[in-house]
Amino acid sequence: MMKMIAGGWLLVLHISIFLPSVCRIHAVSYDYSATTECLIEPQRAQYEGGIISNPDFTHGIQGWTVFGQGAVKEGISNDGNRYIVAHSRSQPLDSISQEVRLEKGKLYSFSAWVQINGGRGNVAVVFKMSSGELVRGGQVTARNGCWCLLKGGVFANISSRAEILFESKTTEAEIWVDNVSLQPFTMEQWRSHQDESIDKERLGKVRFEARYANGTAIEGAGFSIKQTKSDFPFGCCMNYHIINSTDYQHWFALRFRHTTFTNEMKWYSTEKIQGQENYTVADAMVSFAQKNSISIRGHNIFWDNPKYQPEWVKNLTSDELRKAAEQRIESVVSRYAGQLIAWDAMNENLHFNFFEDKLGKNATAEYYARAYQLDPDTTMFLNEYNTIEDCRDEKANPFNYMTKLDEILSYPGNQGISAGIGLQGHFGSGQPNLAYMRSSLDILGSTGLPIWLTEVDVGKDPNQVL
């Protein structure tokens, strides 16, 4: 807006800065096969291979050994590129190996180009520690006929020797490997690289020019800029105690602009007895949040874990469950339609399948479709744990996550859904594997969907700050 001041006009601009990393987009059609690069020829090894010996196999298998009961041979592409082939495999870890030395406190960023000769399957990098422990460091869904980038890494809790292995449960297929890299970083170096990336992606120059209606420039115009909104939502869960505690209310409202209710919207809280719905507590919490301009994530419509169904739901027949679930979604979504910014439509759908087992494999996709029909302007999240925080959990790895999301969004009627990626983030007490987290977020970020850490907590540690 413009207003008159002594000596001329002042142009006042209120600017909301939009950050692509947290953008909200509407899903129309996604090709998740393109979320990782698939190339006819692999790219060069990152960091020139780092501490890997003979990373591009220019010198054959020098520096590498055969692991397990399989065999290896050299491969050469039509363009003369050399790579290594693990074949005659009978066990998932039958592959190639190289021993490296890991130093305590360092992060190791890993990458390699891989493909499976024949079909399609997952290929993972596994670090076999000197203690015998197998630590998964990343995974990719590899294909025949093109090279896919396997990214990941490991954090060294102790100084140890480790063997780098490649794992594929598709044992009948050959694993092709090329341009392997393992680059160590101190925590200081990692932070420095992080800061450089932030500056590159999120900072830029802006040029302002003020003109009169006739197009002539306003000489000596002054500018006042005020940030009216942050694009990094930061919030906290709240529970029913906030209804009657003014101290809790004041504390919360002063600090947070986003919230998720811990249990109060869940099915076992709103319908403890079949047919007797009670939204009194949830309604009161919604009212408090709205009065204080606090945005609400709906948690959740359904939870796929059999353990957390209302007691009366657990023994329903399939027909009875279908009717009860239809009533549940109609009731809760219609009640809060237009009042929430998100719904966790089917919670923990990668680890559990209560509804799919009883109602068919498309149950989750069908409920996303119905939730979208009832509340079309709200983002529907697939909310899951261990996708970034635990590389050992194969069920929830980034590629399985995207496969499930693809199944949901490609279901007839779901193409217009505004979808989101919900990562719970239940971290242990030790140092998280930041290299694995970064690669997982890179993979998920390739979808273009908003990514939220939805339930972040950290295990207790004797050295933590109280």
UniProtKB/TrEMBL annotation:
Gene3D superfamilies: Galactose-binding domain-like (2.60.120.260), Glycosidases (3.20.20.80). Transmembrane segments: none annotated. The keyword ATP-binding does not apply. It holds the Pfam family CBM_4_9. The keyword Hydrolase applies. It comes from the Eukaryota. Residues 219-466 form the GH10 domain. GO terms for molecular function: endo-1,4-beta-xylanase activity. Keywords: Carbohydrate metabolism, Hydrolase, Polysaccharide degradation, Repeat, Signal. Residues 1-27 form the signal peptide. PROSITE patterns: GH10_2 (PS51760). One of its GO terms (biological process) is polysaccharide catabolic process. Belongs to the glycosyl hydrolase 10 (cellulase F) family. This is GLYCOSYL HYDROLASE.
